[in-house]
Amino acid sequence: MEELTERQREVLEIVSSYIRDHGYPPSLREIGGRLKVKGTLGVLKHLDALEKKGYLRRSEGSSRGITLVHQAEGASLPIVGVVRAGVLTHAMEDIEGHFSIDRSQLRSEGMFFLRVRGDSMIHALIAEGDLALVRPQPTAENRDIVVAMVGGEATLKRFYREKDRIRLQPENPNYDAIIVRSGEADVTIVGKVVGIYRQLE
């Protein structure tokens, strides 16, 4: 399913919580009231977008004709910023939206998405614009693909711990590895990349 804007996520949460509390879906005016908007045109646009993205189905001829798709199985995770799959860049932690995945894919608490910028991991099939699903953890094994902080900047690379250094290796021959020798700089593992999500259109 496609990612949601902040407003679409808010509408989806209103519908979900209303169904949970009342056992039936809200009317357009009730959704508008929760959003603090007058009229129903804006609400209809958000519901249309949610239907196109596969989060709900609507029935014609009923003001409450809303059915959630996979309500029990979905988990909405935040997209918390951008990470370069290229040169190091300052870390960004601005939530730009949410993306829902099947709850069965969650192996631990606190998982989140980062949007990939750059092409240094292209041979690992990680491309510009992909969403990288990150499982927070402070350590990594050799060959893990990780989000790492080096001197306060973030990058997405393959991790190697070697004799007297850490090597953050790109998967593109046009880029050099980031080598951090012991005592030169702090390397912090933010988490391991455990999934890649891509929109094809």
UniProtKB/TrEMBL annotation:
It catalyses: Hydrolysis of Ala-|-Gly bond in repressor LexA. The keyword DNA repair applies. Residues 78-194 form the Peptidase S24/S26A/S26B/S26C domain. Transmembrane segments: none annotated. GO terms for biological process: DNA repair; DNA replication; negative regulation of DNA-templated transcription; proteolysis; SOS response. It comes from the Bacteria. The active site is at S120 (for autocatalytic cleavage activity), K157 (for autocatalytic cleavage activity). GO terms for molecular function: DNA binding; serine-type endopeptidase activity. Residues 1-65 form the LexA repressor DNA-binding domain. Keywords: Autocatalytic cleavage, DNA damage, DNA repair, DNA replication, DNA-binding, Hydrolase, Repressor, SOS response, Transcription, Transcription regulation. Its EC number is 3.4.21.88. Pfam families: LexA_DNA_bind, Peptidase_S24. Coiled coil: none annotated. InterPro entries: LexA (IPR006200), LexA-like (IPR039418), LexA/Signal_pep-like_sf (IPR036286), LexA_DNA-bd_dom (IPR006199), LexA_repressor (IPR050077), Peptidase_S24_LexA (IPR006197), Peptidase_S24_S26A/B/C (IPR015927), WH-like_DNA-bd_sf (IPR036388). Residues 28-48 bind DNA. It is an enzyme of class 3 (hydrolase). The record marks A85, G86 as: Cleavage. Belongs to the peptidase S24 family. Represses a number of genes involved in the response to DNA damage (SOS response), including recA and lexA. In the presence of single-stranded DNA, RecA interacts with LexA causing an autocatalytic cleavage which disrupts the DNA-binding part of LexA, leading to derepression of the SOS regulon and eventually DNA repair. Homodimer. This is LexA repressor. It comes from Geomesophilobacter sediminis.
